[in-house]
Amino acid sequence: MFHTFFRPFRLVVTVFFLLAAGMADAAQPKARIAILGGTFLNDIIFHRDGLIQSEFTIDTKVGTSPTIYYAEHKGIPFYYIHAHGQGKWLETWVALYDLGVEEAVGGATAGAINRSMEVYDYILVDDFIDLNIDRPISIPHEVYRDPNAIPLPRFVPAVDTDIRDILLEQTRKAILDNPDYEDISIHDGGTVLQSRGGRFETVAEVEMMARMGGDLVTMNLASEMAYSRMLGINYAAIGVISNPAEGRADWDFSLMEELYPRVNPLSLDIVLASLPAIAKLKGKPRVSDGLINHPEMTSQKKQD
Asked: Residue 223 falls within a domain, yes or no?
């Protein structure tokens, strides 16, 4: 009798929470594009009037997301996540996947390993070397919408070529047409090497990185390139040289006092100017379409 009495109540509570969950999902503003801010942007986006509209977090299968900001520019909606996700590496990318993001732009300031790259230079990176030692290597299988997927992504090319071409075009327009930036060079391609966070590299480590083929070193971009491809999100990034890598030339932290006020507004202008062309990519076949899932192996196929 006791259980019979509470059964309808339990059903009502279950329906309530299901409806509440659905309403919470529906309440999140929708966007196909995401921007991930690093030191190439710092917090400049929060000081531009009219961009940020709201903020929220969502729960994912790997934990609660970092704060996600909903923003609009010239009628184009996008999400913004600050500081590469502020340490929530998997949660950031799984949240974007769960929200239906298809296009993403990232970036970072970096140390120049390649001696032809100088402070303030912009690099449209096209490959990476990942020396990460403390972040998850891959996306957990339970995250994927398709339970039969066998994600084993390839990285040839390592970034989305359409977004990279758009960023390159807008970088050239912003810099080459402005005499204030005549000291800044633009590098069409470069290999970014991701080092561990928390400290700068030693001179010996930088020399090793140079021999490995790295052009610039930073702490987050390789993870973003890997996670985005694993989740089928088209991604490209901008690198900005903030200092010579250790042993390449003398520098000190006073350099940053001049660098960030100059490159942060410029980088945001480039990213925002790229949004209309990125938005038009919807529905276009992409370079990564055939690079994500491993084909089913013969031994795994069901026998008739």
From this structure: yes
At 229, which CATH number?
3.40.50.1580
The DSSP element (H or E) to which 63 belongs, if any, is: strand 63-64
Dist. CA 274–CA 292, nearest whole Å? 25
Neighbours of 112 (CB within 10 A): 25
Q: Is the pLDDT of residue 19 over 90?
A: no
- 139-157: b (≥16 Cβ within 10 Å) or e: beeebbeeeeeebebeeee
pTM for the whole structure: 0.88
Residue 29 CB neighbour total at 10 angstroms: 14
Instruction: Kindly report each contact of residues 11-17 with a partner whose C-beta sits within 8 Å and lies 24 or more positions away, as own/partner.
Output: none
Q: For the purposes of burial, counting CB atoms within 10 Å of the CB of 292, is it exposed (0-12), middle (13-18) or buried (19 or more)?
A: middle
22 within some domain: no
Task: Give the model's pLDDT for residue 293.
Answer: 83
Distance in Å from the first CA to the final CA of the chain: 51
